[in-house]
Write a structure and sequence with these properties.
Elements (H helix, E strand, L loop, with lengths): L6 H11 L3 H6 L1 E9 L2 E4 H12 L6 E10 L2 E9 L4 E11 L2 E7 L3
Parallel strand pairs: 1-6
Antiparallel strand pairs: 1-2, 3-4, 4-5, 5-6
Length: 108
Amino acid sequence: MTNQIPAPVQAFADAINNADTDAFVALFTSDGMVDDWGRQLHGHDGVRSWAGSDAIGAGAKMSILSAETEDATTRTRFSWSSSVFNGESDGIFELDGDSIASFTIPRH
């Protein structure tokens, strides 16, 4: 287990903070998925939709507070500010090499 932030996870936060939707979508595998409290959006179109409604389109800023990686799974704690949500949350990334296979924000 490592506490370093994997490059795709850091690039995820950077793309959000830089409001770069194309870079954000490109981080995901073609069948990648965002699961936001049980609402699942699949593929690049789904990821782009989530970025537009809940992240970049909502003026989001993200800071990764902590990260623990084991194998292809990185569990993070992050702070978030946007017109949709403000506060801290958990985020789970499943990586496929240098790409993101899924990003999940679990319900608490």
